[in-house]
Write a structure and sequence with these properties.
This protein is an alpha+beta fold. The protein has eight helices and 23 strands. Helix content is about 20%, strand content about 30%. A hairpin with a 1-residue loop joins strand 15 and strand 16. It binds zinc ion. The site of zinc ion has 8 residues, from loops.
Length: about 425
Amino acid sequence: MIIGIDDTDSVDGMCTTYLTAILIDKLKGLGDIRGLPHLIRLNPNIKYKTRGNAALAVEIDTYPDSEEQIVNTAISLVEDMADMDCENTNPGIVFLIDQGRNDPGFRQDLESFMWQAMRDVLAVEDARSLIGKYGIKHKEFKNGRGLIGALAACGSVLCGLSDHTYELIAYRQPGNFGTPREIDRESVFRADRETYPGTWDTVDISNNTIVFAPHSPDPILFGIRGDDVQSIEKAFGIIGSEPAGLTLLYRTNQGTDFHLLDAQICDVLEERSYKLTGTVVDRPVTIRGGHMFFTLKGSGSIRCAAFEPTKGFRNIIKELIPGDKVGVYGGIADGTLNVEKIEILELAAYEKTSNPVCPTCGKRMKSAGSKQGFRCKGCNTKSGEVVRTTMGRGITPGIYEVPPCARRHISKPLVRSAEPDVYPSR
Ligand SMILES: [Zn+2]
């Protein structure tokens, strides 16, 4: 059986990953958990979403006659723990019992639904229609929007993903919920130094801050993300903190860029994320608050933004000039692409023109009038061509990313794409 759960969390403290960790604990005795639980980040650009837009799924080999008990355990746990008073919390639970094993049509439908949940905008009706078509056991609360993520997370378990990473989440002991987290900052930087790039996005070196622990009142103490389970466990051993309660390792789609669609600029839609290619039209401008904007032209044109929270990333953006050919990655909101990564493909030549120097007396010549060349005021020497100087550019072709403190969970850090000898410098 595969159990998918989504949308039980709220800004006030509950978190679907924690609920899943508790559920796994409660299911001992009713079946054997198979593999790791899956933590799936859905389309990060959706307007109606819970904080991180994470959905969870867990696979369990049931014991004889334990199915009903498992279903009831999961439902009553969600009833008990989900923050039902929060307007934005609309839990959904899905149980794949017989579906999928021998039905390629179902697997195909579920897989395509999962990709839509990561990249597109789905309605609860889309989830209900899939549930109805295959008679899937489920339970929904309030408007039932959680059914979307619950199905998508089941899809990840049943159909697999072409790329994945891991996150070890350490939860707080319940007595500490809501109090400031005690984490030994220096040990976190040390853990990063000793395990990067097997782990990543634990700290943000350029902004001198740790980024692997939330500031909200939720049950998470911290989460260590990475590609390599051994490195993650090593980092966990190095980090000093208040005593953790439950800890659980998840298989995730974090750091995969699965949210990105390829498209032409003229075809982009709100609430989706894209990789777009085009030519820079104007010099980036900075508005109050430090947000930076420029226009990209291809098949149509689009405004691109590097907002203040992207910090030093704006130092790359501000060097762009008209004519630069770039690829931008990011989500669309209000007609603007919020840049997560930029690939500088080709830099435009940047020339400065100046008046020639007089060959006789070495003084800078003045213009002799429109199309009249130049004249030296000192000795009256005429002529001379305008001098063109190719200026150096403050950037070089390559791919650049926002710092870890500004990165979305699902966005792929460059360190994951690079060969070991060309890891981006930090
Ligand atoms: Zn002269």
